[in-house]
């Protein structure tokens, strides 16, 4: 699957991002990956960079009213925000299609996350190291759901941090991969997805895939 992602993202003829690329009639296996993280970490940008089609997004212009509920510290230049989810697609081969879902980062939209996690193979947690605490909730929810994930530090030009320091700040398990990326770059976004797929392969072949949490009783 990782080689298929690489080929699809690298071949302009196969994935030249047409406005409306028809899905092959033979495609009958949909695979799902979710991109999560704090407010303004680049989730929409990553999905847009790597999708073979023009992504579906639900971005709305930010207003002064939103300043009362959204913490814009460190992202003051941000003018639009996702209010539902982003959606992109990568055709892997004649039968397999990868669907990408980008989750909104603000706390007021966190109630959507549990539904977005349903049926996903794994997740990418995007991190802005200038606002690292904004990613704690994403990691907590993924661990609660037993969803495998990797962490990708998006480059915003901030100070360099040692990998050990980032891991400690996020309290990452040693087996969770930590990579660096530029979400604006198609190649870099592709490499993030490949890193996740390789992590999933390792977990499944070693039998170390985390178990899903027990079903909570409904009163």
Automatic annotation (TrEMBL):
<keyword id="KW-0547">Nucleotide-binding</keyword>
<comment type="similarity">
    <text>Belongs to the GPN-loop GTPase family.</text>
</comment>
<protein>
    <submittedName>
        <fullName>ATP/GTP-binding protein</fullName>
    </submittedName>
</protein>
<dbReference type="InterPro" id="IPR052705">
    <property type="entry name" value="Gliding_Motility_GTPase"/>
</dbReference>
<keyword id="KW-0378">Hydrolase</keyword>
<keyword id="KW-0342">GTP-binding</keyword>
<dbReference type="Pfam" id="PF03029">
    <property type="entry name" value="ATP_bind_1"/>
</dbReference>
<dbReference type="GO" id="GO:0005525">
    <property type="term" value="F:GTP binding"/>
</dbReference>
<dbReference type="GO" id="GO:0016787">
    <property type="term" value="F:hydrolase activity"/>
</dbReference>
<dbReference type="InterPro" id="IPR027417">
    <property type="entry name" value="P-loop_NTPase"/>
</dbReference>
<dbReference type="InterPro" id="IPR004130">
    <property type="entry name" value="Gpn"/>
</dbReference>
């Amino acid at each position: 699957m990782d080689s298929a992602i690489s080929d699809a993202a690298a071949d302009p003829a196969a994935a030249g991002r047409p406005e409306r690329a028809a899905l092959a009639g033979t495609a009958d296996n949909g695979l799902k990956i979710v991109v999560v993280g704090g407010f303004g970490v680049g989730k929409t940008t990553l999905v847009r960079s790597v999708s073979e089609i023009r992504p579906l997004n639900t971005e709305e212009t930010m207003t002064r009213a939103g300043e009362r509920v959204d913490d814009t510290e460190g992202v003051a230049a941000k003018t639009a925000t996702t209010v539902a989810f982003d959606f992109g697609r990568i055709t892997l081969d004649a039968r397999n299609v990868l669907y990408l879902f980008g989750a909104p980062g603000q706390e007021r939209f966190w109630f959507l996350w549990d539904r977005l996690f349903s049926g996903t193979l794994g997740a990418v947690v995007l991190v802005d190291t200038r606002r690292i605490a904004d990613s704690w909730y994403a990691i907590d929810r993924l661990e609660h759901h037993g969803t495998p994930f990797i962490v990708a530090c998006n480059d915003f030009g901030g100070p360099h941090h040692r990998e050990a320091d980032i891991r400690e700040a996020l309290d990452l398990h040693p087996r969770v991969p930590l990579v660096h990326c530029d979400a604006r770059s198609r190649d870099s976004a592709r490499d993030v997805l490949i890193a996740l797929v390789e992590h999933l392969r390792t977990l499944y072949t070693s039998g170390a895939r985390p178990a899903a949490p027990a079903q909570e009783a409904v009163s």
